[in-house]
Design a protein that fits this description.
By secondary structure, the protein is of the alpha/beta class. It has one domain: 2-Layer Sandwich (BirA Bifunctional Protein, domain 2), CATH 3.30.930.10. It is globular.
Length: about 280
């Protein structure tokens, strides 16, 4: 199929979960619990939209903990959590986060990680267009691994969402046991430079990262010129996913099994120092 042609999917029914704020460990545990239930055939594919409290700095699955200034995080009341997905650091505050859990056999996940990014990002793009955001997918801007910094929003990867060549949505994906988890951060408002205060950087490095972020990343408020409430953004993103991916999104909640699994994962994995400090 030519790259400039839209995808066509058979109709499908997914679950839509719109959550309020939770801490970082709870949010990551919930995403993984949903994925495991989808893999086991106990839950339908799921789009989850949620927020974070308190502010949390998340690390990519294989990112070194040494990138983070743990003392600064503790002093400011910023949690630290390691994601099950890859990528670099994100400071989660004043944002809407989306997650998608589905099977690798779903046509919306075809094409490996890069193909899945592109397909699922089409839903994000349509939702942002509903809000009047002139967003596009970034193509051909992925840096070599040796040039990456500790900050996710410093450079767009292929098929992530940008506005005027500045990154608006940072996403990451994990494929395991026949399932796919993709989640990502849409900053609604605030100063994206705040993240540099919680990274292990020298003064000169901190200033350089601040200068780069000003040029490379943006928030929804900055892109539109005004702020939008979480609920309005969530509704638009859900509509975009439904339209582009040919989905009927049925509002739902976690099952008892998912709630129990999420609680176990939060305790045994996402608040466990052995996971947080891994490489």
């Amino acid at each position: 199929m030519p790259d400039d042609q839209p995808y066509s999917y058979p109709p499908a029914t997914w679950r839509l979960i719109v959550d309020r704020e939770a801490d970082g460990a709870a949010n990551m545990a919930t995403d993984q619990a949903i994925l495991e239930a989808v893999i086991d055939g106990l839950s339908p594919p799921t789009l989850r939209l949620y927020a974070w409290s308190p502010p949390c700095l998340s690390l990519g699955r294989n990112q070194p903990l040494s990138d983070i200034d743990q003392v600064a995080c503790r002093a400011a009341g910023v949690d630290i959590v390691r994601r099950p997905t890859g990528g670099r650091s994100i400071l989660h505050t004043g944002e809407l986060t989306y997650s998608v859990a589905l099977l690798q056999t779903d046509p919306r996940a075809e094409g490996g990680v890069t193909g899945g990014y592109r397909r699922l990002s089409e839903g994000l793009l349509a939702g942002l267009h509903h809000l009047g955001v002139p967003a596009v997918q970034a193509v051909g801007r992925r840096r070599p691994e040796t040039e990456l910094t500790a900050i996710c929003f410093e450079t767009p990867a292929d098929y992530e969402i940008t506005v005027a060549e500045r990154k608006l949505v940072g996403s990451a994906q994990w494929r395991a046991l026949g399932g796919v988890l993709q989640h990502g951060s849409l900053p609604l408002f605030g100063d994206l430079n705040r993240i540099v205060h919680y990274l292990a950087l020298s003064g000169a490095e901190r200033q350089a990262q601040q200068d780069s972020l000003c040029l490379q990343a943006t928030t929804l408020e900055e892109a539109l010129g005004h702020a939008l409430p979480f609920d309005q953004v969530a509704q638009a993103l859900a509509a975009g996913f439904g339209e582009v991916l040919n989905l009927s999104l049925v509002p739902g909640k976690l099952t008892p099994r998912e709630r129990t699994q999420a609680a176990d994962l939060r305790t045994e994995m996402y608040t466990n120092p052995l996971w947080t400090t891994r490489r």
